[in-house]
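Per reviewer request, we include the raw input and output of the structure prediction for the construct analysed in the revised manuscript.
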Amino acid sequence: SKLISPSKKSIQGIWAELLLIDMSSNVDYMIKAWHVNPSDLFDFNDGKSKLEVKSTNSSERIHKFYLNQIRPNQRARLLIGSVKVLESGLGTSIYDLIKYIETRVKDMNCLEKLHEILFETRVI
């Protein structure tokens, strides 16, 4: 089962992305912009603004970027989200975040996209 399960680092990254979706005032908008193409350089891209989410469980915020991620086209607005995580048996799980988001989704296409990405990344 370890061969088909996502890595801890992958789960941590998806958790951070789901946290930002959950924290947003418009979860449908965020889901629409989330991983538009699997090969995208940015986690969220609405065509004008780009958001790259990095996470760490280290005491220091040290992240790696591709040059294209920190220098998108000149008309684009770039935001970087840096999330420090601490694994805990009592904290908010990835499944908690999914449930919170599902209750706020209004567009069924967004709900389908949410589940599709989670399925493709082997989270669910």
